[in-house]
């Protein structure tokens, strides 16, 4: 164990198993104990200050430390800290939030099923898809198609639907008999000379071929993040998702948009599927920005058409103790009110333009192979050779090196293999954006210098 950990970090190191942790690194380095947050800023237990370019974990959309959020949470905790929403009970914040989400969601997505976070929203959407297909007389439609490099969460079903490099380990099992994957839209690594339109055509053709191979009559749904976030901020060609959705419609396959990251303003819209990428899904899974991380909550928002087909003299046997938790719903309602009152979607669009422009100024650095993103989600991909796009060997762990160099300079960016990814709070100021860009540039340079 390390000697110079604070008492809290030492206690954590002695007793905690963190999510998605690396045993050896944790046992040698311990964890940073964060104690305070305000806007995009964090402080640790030694009083060190960091600019949080990660936005928690793609989630602190309205920024940390808001007194009005704390008040809304406290008020609801005092008034009614808990009721379940099982069967025929509900509470005022859950009812109001369902109505508000129906108002914000596109098309006829007017029905809301609350969950505890993103993974449970994905699990629930999977069940809903099977349920509605069966109700429509297609009980054989139990399979799903998703994309490689997607991350849909960490429960058994969500981990099986996602398929990122390195996530799958031999110690765990994954559901594979009914889950299929097609290629992700990876513009940076497309074949030499291939246009975006040709890439889209190839991906759509691969999707059609996969549907034919599995059999459309077996497929319930297609899961897709509008931008594959944890898979490496994969920004698709503009018409790719609408075309994939059109293929789904043709084959009776439901379209499930995983907007856990892209929802609630990250791309300058409430939801990216319709407003940014021009398709209306049958279901939207959301979490994270729904409460800006102030409370754990998720939801599946689905269409009236699905509801009409699934209703009847029967049970829907799925849900969680904390589905529709009144304090979490009160936090989400306040969060949405703040986004509306402070015009945060428009602010995100404006800040996002500056952020993207700033990040692109890093393209000239010798190891920055690609800079990509949309509005307030972005990443740099570090490569060993820019001309050939040759990757660094895994053991170089370049993303982590850059993250460490950034952390030493008071900036938090997330390593993802060779990438460094960012999704700052949407209320970020122009000078804070400049600070991210300059510090990240300095960190990449320091990490590069360290290699020689
Ligand atoms: N879907 C996407 C796109 C995500 O990025 C995540 C988490 O990062 C999830 C689902 C899972 O959400 P949660 O960790 O709240 O279960």
TrEMBL record:
SUPFAM superfamilies according to UniProt: PLP-dependent transferases (SSF53383)
A GO molecular-function annotation: pyridoxal phosphate binding
Name the UniProt record assigns to this protein: Adenosylmethionine-8-amino-7-oxononanoate aminotransferase
Pfam entry (one): Aminotran_3
NCBIfam families, sorted: PRK07036.1
Keyword Transferase attributed: yes
Keyword Transferase (UniProt): yes
GO cellular component entries: cytosol
E.C. designation(s): 2.6.1.62
Organism of origin: Flavimaricola marinus
InterPro entries: Aminotrans_3, Aminotrans_3_PPA_site, PyrdxlP-dep_Trfase, PyrdxlP-dep_Trfase_major, PyrdxlP-dep_Trfase_small
Family statement drawn from the similarity comment of this UniProt entry: Belongs to the class-III pyridoxal-phosphate-dependent aminotransferase family.
Cofactors required: pyridoxal 5'-phosphate
Top EC class, one word: transferase
Alphabetic keyword roster: Aminotransferase, Pyridoxal phosphate, Transferase
Superkingdom of the organism of origin: Bacteria
